């Protein structure tokens, strides 16, 4: 008797992976696909993918996906959810999108308590556009536009999105995770499940921030990039729940 223990989720397209070796996007795509299947919501799901590496989610996720202008995913998601409240709507955004040109968008979506789920991929750099400094680039971190390292006197400090949004009444659930190990991946899946369930239960704005490696733009091997997340990024971006989901 043949028994299948591990299979491709229906919500994950059978397409080749184009992301750089060691990138965290593919892992999170798989998590999203598994949850859409497990929660039985794929047929009513609409994803929003804006500019940056995150935009290519439509190549992998087998659900309706709409593109948005740079930073405007929360506004597009707001319109889609309000026009069709029975749909499940999620946004998949990177730090160069959500935390920079989209900062006002995400703040006001959270403040309004929009009933949408957000997945925020934080790799501390602009990955698609050759590695410039991002709002989440660490102090002293070298990028294409900070070759000597980010100078906080000139460039300010990294933006802690979860802590910022936690001050807003409309945000119901905020958590920061990683994908640097199998246990970390399981924690990330559990966090995204909570964010998805919060929307299904009508509780409002939920966001999961995932600290993700970018070996290509960091100039590291995949293994060293994972260590950088665990040993350096988590110093400035502590893992855990920033705002607990009320039962």
CATH-assigned homologous superfamily: Thiamin diphosphate (ThDP)-binding fold, Pyr/PP domains
Q: What top-tier CATH class fits best?
A: Alpha Beta
How many domains is the backbone divided into? 1
Number of strands: 7
Taken in chain order, the helices and strands follow as: HEEHEHHEHHEHEHHE
Averaged pLDDT: 94
In spatial order, strands of the major sheet run 2-1-3-4-6-5-7
Calculate Rg over CA atoms.
Answer: 17 Å
CATH structural architecture: 3-Layer(aba) Sandwich
Strand content: 15-25%
Largest sheet: 7 strands, mixed
Number of alpha- plus pi-helical segments: 9
Termini, distance in Å?
43 Å
CATH topology: Rossmann fold
Estimate percent helicity: 25-40%
Low-confidence stretches: none
Helix and strand content put the structural class at alpha/beta
- Overall spatial form: globular
Describe the 3D structure:
The chain has 247 residues and is α/β, with parallel strands linked by helices. The protein has one domain: Thiamin diphosphate (ThDP)-binding fold, Pyr/PP domains (Rossmann fold). It is 36% helix and 17% strand. Helix 1 packs across helix 7 and helix 3 crosses helix 4. The longest helix is centred in the last third of the chain and has 19 residues. The radius of gyration is 17 Å and the shape is globular. The N and C termini lie far apart (43 Å). The model has no long low-confidence stretch (mean pLDDT 94).
């Amino acid at each position: 008797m043949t028994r299948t223990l591990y299979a491709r989720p229906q919500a994950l397209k059978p397409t080749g992976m184009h992301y750089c070796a060691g990138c965290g996007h593919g892992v999170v795509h798989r998590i999203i696909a598994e949850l859409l299947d497990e929660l039985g919501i794929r047929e009513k799901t609409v994803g929003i993918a804006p500019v940056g590496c995150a935009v290519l989610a439509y190549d992998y996720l087998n659900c309706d996906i709409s593109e948005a202008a740079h930073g405007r995913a929360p506004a597009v998601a707001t319109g889609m959810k309000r026009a069709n409240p029975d749909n499940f709507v999620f946004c998949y955004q990177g730090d160069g999108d959500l935390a920079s040109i989209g900062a006002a968008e995400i703040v006001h979506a959270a403040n309004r308590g929009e009933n949408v789920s957000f997945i925020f991929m934080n790799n501390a750099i602009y990955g698609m556009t050759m590695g410039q400094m991002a709002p989440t680039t660490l102090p002293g971190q070298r990028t294409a536009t900070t070759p000597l390292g980010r100078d906080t006197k000139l460039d300010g400090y990294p933006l802690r999105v979860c802590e910022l949004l936690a001050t807003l009444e409309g945000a119901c659930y905020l958590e920061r995770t990683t994908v640097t190990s199998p246990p970390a991946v399981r924690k990330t899946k559990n966090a995204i499940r909570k964010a998805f369930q919060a929307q299904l239960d009508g509780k409002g704005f939920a966001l999961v921030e995932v600290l993700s490696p970018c070996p290509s733009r960091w100039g590291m091997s995949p293994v060293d990039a994972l260590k950088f997340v665990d040993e350096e990024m988590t110093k400035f971006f502590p893992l855990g729940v920033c705002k607990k989901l009320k039962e």
